[in-house]
């Protein structure tokens, strides 16, 4: 351990990472650099800076990465319409490669020998952090205290903090009983009563969305504008990526949109039950698919749908910087040149309903062909007979063999 002189720690200022900070100083005898990222978790970050200073940290990085997060990570993922196992919109998964990338960059900037994170040895985040780190620097050293120490419970962490003079803020009533993670795309909940898959989430658990039963009785319509597959406006007002997602979170959350209760398959092998709130992301997924239905060629759209589960699994499992994800991204992005226009959606008591879509320049919908009225010769219905007979040929051959 003596060869580790300086470590960059992903630091939140909470109990776990504050204990890790002191543990690194004592166990490795090293200097610790802290990195705290604002990716829209909605918490004041200056307390983390002050706490790091109190623990003797001299190099402290506190960075606002909200715009980078949405523009360079969330939006590219949304272009693929990525959903893991049919329900999870990958809110935690997509944040980890950004945080890990900055850890590696700061290690290079400060001459650190290693990076460290507070992910446990049972979860997915350790995999995501470390695969990202090794993809960007194959020689980086990663320290994962949860895989090394014997502080295996909250009680042991609290005892360590007390013994080492680490200030611990105790929230009124003991704080949240859940393990929570938040950013501009979502907020997640695990642990507590959720460890019983049959137990219903407690009503006061949800933070971003109202109970759909108590949502407004009047629906709310909004119009989302798209350019090259990315959302750029809400109700005609152009907004930068982070502000746009925040706006949709607020408006959709007001109507109870975006709740999910999932049992998912972790990459490390176990099943895990989690609850998620992704209001803005839920709206964007619905609206994007409506925009693509109007502007994307049929086979390109179907190919995207075939590849989407693979893309989503790569993000979930931590392979954001893998060659296969980058190759899939190039294919996805190539399909988005003509995904331009507007989609109107209606928010009502937990639901998102598409009520209209239009594109002045890139629509593939031709009313002259699609109409049930006189199409003035745009489509010769007699052509369908030969089309059907050719496609039925193999089915008729099979039927004759069975007969």
Helix content: 40-55%
CATH topology of the largest domain: Rossmann fold
User: If helices are DSSP runs of H or I spanning 4 or more residues, what is the number of helices?
Assistant: 12
| End-to-end CA span | 76 Å
CATH-assigned homologous superfamily of the largest domain: HUPs
CATH class of the largest domain: Alpha Beta
**Strand percentage, roughly?**
15-25%
CATH architectural grouping of the largest domain = 3-Layer(aba) Sandwich
Order of helices and strands: EHEHEHHEHEHEEEEEHEEHHHEEHH
The assembly state of the depicted protein chains is single chain
Could you characterize what this model shows?
By secondary structure, the protein is of the alpha/beta class. Helix 1 packs across helix 6 (154-163) and helix 7 packs across helix 8 (279-295). The chain is elongated. The protein has three domains: 6-66 and 89-174, Rossmann fold; 179-296 and 335-358, Argininosuccinate synthetase, chain A, domain 2 (Alpha-Beta Complex), CATH 3.90.1260.10; 367-402. The chain has helices at 15-27, 46-54, 66-79, 91-110, 125-136, 154-163, 241-253, 279-295, 298-317, 323-334, 367-370, 383-402; strands at residues 6-10, 31-38, 60-64, 114-116, 141-143, 179-182, 187-190, 220-227, 230-234, 237-238, 259-265, 271-277, 341-348, 351-358. The strands form three sheets. Strands 3-2-1-4-5 form a five-stranded parallel sheet, with helices on both faces.
């Amino acid at each position: 351990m003596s060869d580790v002189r300086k470590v960059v720690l992903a630091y939140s200022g909470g109990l776990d990472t504050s204990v890790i900070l002191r543990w690194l100083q004592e166990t490795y005898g090293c200097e610790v650099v802290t990195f705290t990222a604002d990716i829209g978790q909605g918490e004041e970050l200056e307390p983390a800076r002050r706490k790091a200073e109190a623990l003797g940290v001299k190099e402290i990085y506190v960075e606002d990465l909200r715009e980078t997060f949405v523009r360079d990570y969330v939006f590219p993922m949304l272009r693929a319409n990525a959903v893991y196992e049919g329900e999870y919109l990958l809110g935690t998964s997509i944040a980890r490669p950004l945080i890990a990338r900055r850890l590696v960059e700061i290690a290079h900037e400060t001459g650190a020998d290693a990076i460290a994170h507070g992910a446990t040895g049972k979860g997915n985040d350790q995999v995501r952090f470390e695969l990202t780190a090794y993809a960007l620097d194959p020689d980086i050293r990663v320290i994962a205290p949860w895989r090394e120490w014997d502080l295996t419970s909250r009680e042991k962490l609290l005892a360590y903090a007390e013994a080492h003079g680490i200030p611990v803020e105790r929230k009124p009533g003991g704080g949240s009983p859940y393990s929570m993670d938040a950013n501009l795309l979502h907020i997640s909940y695990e642990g507590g009563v959720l460890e019983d898959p049959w137990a219903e989430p407690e009503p006061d658990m949800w933070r971003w969305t109202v109970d759909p039963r108590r949502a407004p009785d009047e629906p709310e319509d909004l119009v989302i504008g798209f350019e090259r597959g990315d959302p750029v406006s809400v109700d005609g007002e152009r907004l930068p990526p982070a502000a746009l997602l925040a706006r949709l979170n607020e408006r959709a959350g007001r109507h109870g949109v975006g709740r999910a209760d999932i049992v998912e398959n972790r990459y490390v092998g176990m099943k895990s039950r989690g609850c998620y709130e992704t209001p803005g992301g839920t709206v964007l997924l619905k609206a994007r698919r409506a925009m693509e239905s109007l502007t994307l060629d049929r086979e390109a759209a179907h190919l995207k749908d075939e590849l989407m589960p693979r893309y989503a699994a790569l993000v979930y499992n931590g392979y954001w910087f893998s060659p296969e994800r980058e190759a899939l991204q190039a294919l996805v992005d190539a399909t988005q040149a003509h995904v331009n226009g507007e989609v109107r959606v209606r928010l009502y008591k937990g639901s998102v309903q598409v009520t209209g879509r239009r594109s002045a320049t890139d629509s593939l919908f031709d009313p002259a062909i699609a109409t049930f009225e006189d199409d003035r010769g745009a489509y010769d219905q007699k052509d369908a007979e030969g089309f059907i007979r050719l496609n039925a040929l193999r089915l008729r051959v099979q039927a004759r063999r069975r007969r």
